[in-house]
Amino acid sequence: MSNHLPHPNHDRGLEFDLSTMISRRSLGMFFGAGGAAAALAACTPGGSGTTAGTSTSAAPESASSSASAATTTAATPTASPTLTRAIAECGVEIPQETAGPYPGDGSNGPNVLAASGVVRQDITSSFGTGSAKAEGVPLTFTLTLLDNANGCVPLAGAAVYAWHCDRDGRYSMYDSGLANENYLRGVQEADSNGQVTFTSIFPGAYSGRWPHIHFEVFESMSNATAAGQVLAVSQIALTDAACKEVYATAGYESSARNFPRTTLQSDNVFGDDGGIYQLATMTGSASAGYTAGLNVTI
């Protein structure tokens, strides 16, 4: 069972979140206002899933065949099918969300971004002076970053800081007994396809929230590790089918109790639109592990 008490404004800590976000107007200036008109012509609203294969659940898609040739030419000759699909579906920017009360990015106390070792793909274990390892069903998740203001080209070289709770709903660096641990937190640099991939465990469900993964997008790796200004702050929603299967396994007993109490529609973050643009596409099983993917249009 989670040792942290529900935060009075859990995952709605806007006071410190707003200080780390670039406004939509500023973001458009950053990427160049000249590309905005081309983006509108080149992109159509679409779903948020990215992982290939049979999905247990996926965000509704509305990409139409009328998307212009600019979306196709934006992909490089070596672009993966996942990236090609992501570009075709690009058009709706990822909803900006709260970083919540446990970001560990220096906005409300602890700052893992300044620690040596935070740049890593596998985030299951603590690094530095920490020694704990998070146990649970394996989960690999990939984010595909796209620049909406410039024809949905991949945001190569951008950086992502991702973090989430453990299978008991606890957050490293914050919960009782975990102040000196930093597992399930890490930074990755986007490759030429604008993609970052993390190896982790399936997070638990705690009171008041739908199962999710937090992330912040930075302009560059150096900007991320300096805990600088962020381009986007959002969350990944995990699918109902995957959660039900994982939470029926040993070790997720507290999640099995908490999960039925919150729906995507009642969740205080995803409830605005049911998480339509944040719901991951997922494949796998509790026995073999899961993969998740999400398109992040900025």
Automatic annotation (TrEMBL):
UniProt keyword Oxidoreductase present: yes
Annotated CDD domains: intradiol_dioxygenase_like
Pfam families: Dioxygenase_C (PF00775)
Top-level taxon: Bacteria
Residue segments, region Disordered: 46-80
SUPFAM superfamilies xref list: Aromatic compound dioxygenase
Domain called Intradiol ring-cleavage dioxygenases: residue spans: 133-208
Keywords: Dioxygenase, Oxidoreductase
Gene Ontology MF: a single term: dioxygenase activity
PANTHER family: INTRADIOL RING-CLEAVAGE DIOXYGENASES DOMAIN-CONTAINING PROTEIN-RELATED, PTHR34315
Protein name as it appears in the record: Intradiol ring-cleavage dioxygenase
Species whose genome carries this gene: Pseudarthrobacter humi
Native organism taxonomy: Bacteria, Bacillati, Actinomycetota, Actinomycetes, Micrococcales
